[in-house]
Amino acid sequence: MIKPSMLTRRQYIAATGAGALAMSFANARRAAALETIRQGYQTNIWGMPTYYLIKSGYLEKHGLAFEEFAVPSGNLTMQQMVARQVDVGTYAGQSFIIGNAKGGLVAIALIEHVGKTARITTRKDLGITKVEELRGRKIANQTGSSVGNVFVDTIMPQRGLKKGDYQEVRMDVNNMVAALAAKTVDAMVNVEPYNVIAVADGIGSDLMDFSGVDPMPVFMAATPEFVDKKPDAVIAYLRAWLDVARDFKEKPKQVADVIYAFYTSKGYKMSIDAFATALSRVEVNPGFPGDLKPYMQQQAEILLQDKKIDAIPDWSKALRPDLMERARTNA
To answer: What 3-state class would DSSP assign to 266?
Structure first.
């Protein structure tokens, strides 16, 4: 966030003249009028539509300023929001349900489906071809994340494996490729672009993706205070997302260039082809489909059974499709 210069009237007249001064004061008033949003996002591929939003200029176009809070995975953004350190952020349905239970968080949009990006990648030298062969293996998993919950609660039980049949190694997703290369773990439960990096570097083998088990919708969630106290900012924010949606459809190369530059700036060595593969697995379509409740109910029942929440959310309060509908009006 850029703060306006605080030059005095006399200093500014001396430097640039009264005409320029009048223009500067007008700009300062406009800058001061910008509503500041504290935006959380994860640095894996799930968070890259949000990163593009931040870099696109669409927030400013709709009268919004921002502070950004980047973390390795969405469950950490959810925790920041529960602590009221962040206003808005993205994560999958499982983390959202937990965030709603702990902090009353509200879903204001569905940004993407990422089931194809969530994968189990194994060490290539082990020659593992079935999930069942992970019995007794060390598996890197970001415990508490949506991907981690689906792996433990759904995928492994479907294959006849329960906790204790394998060794879960708690680890951030951005450290897993190095652990796989060092052979300190046998497999990782990860998201893009880390899976394609491991495969492209000859370290890992792609075992399975999660799309056949869970489409993994990713929500943009907000704190209830943000929704209740700043309704105009919420609508302006969602209108910026509708602009982002158009870019993903109409300007895919521009979008890809911005996101690829993010990873190369962080020191990741990834070919453009590998990156294209990772990005192709993200289905971005900001909106709010009307058929989400059955899916969310099913996920909540799993979390309730596993005692990760105490009660099923009130979906009439947790899911707010009306906000996106208002944003679409005269967007």
So the answer is: coil
In tens, the pLDDT along 133-146 reads 999 999 999 988 88
From first CA to last CA, the distance across the chain in angstroms is 25
- Count CB atoms within 10 A of the CB of residue 162: 10
Strand order in the sheet with 204-209: 167-170, 138-141, 187-190, 119-123, 204-209
- How confident is the model at residue 331, as a pLDDT? 54
DSSP assignment of 127-184 equals: T--SGGGGTT-EEEE-TTSHHHHHIIIIIHHHTT--TTSSEEEE--GGGHHHHHHTTS
User: Rounded to two decimals, what is the model's pTM?
Assistant: 0.79
> Residue 203's pLDDT is what?
96
- DSSP three-state, residue 115: coil
What gap in Å lies between CA 79 and CA 90, rounded to an integer?
12
The class of domain 34-114+216-328 in CATH terms is alpha beta
Provide CATH code, domain 119-209.
3.40.190.10
> Per-domain residue ranges for the chain?
1-33, 34-114+216-328, 119-209
With 70 as the cut, is the pLDDT of residue 86 above it?
Answer: yes
Q: How far is CA 286 from the centre of its chain?
A: 13
The span from the CA of 109 to the CA of 154, in Å, is 25
Percent of the chain with pLDDT over 70: 89
- The H or E element containing residue 94 is helix 93-103
Q: Tell me whether the CATH fold assigned to 34-114+216-328 matches the one assigned to 119-209.
A: yes
Contact 276, 107 (CB under 8 A): no
Instruction: Tell me which DSSP letter residue 124 carries.
Output: G
How confident is the model over 287-323, as pLDDT tens digits?
898 889 999 999 999 999 999 999 999 999 999 999 9
Mean pLDDT of 196-220: 95
Residue 244 scores a pLDDT above 80: yes
Q: Residues 6 or more apart from 24 whose CB is under 8 A from it?
A: 5, 7, 12, 16
Distance CA 215, CA 226 (A): 28
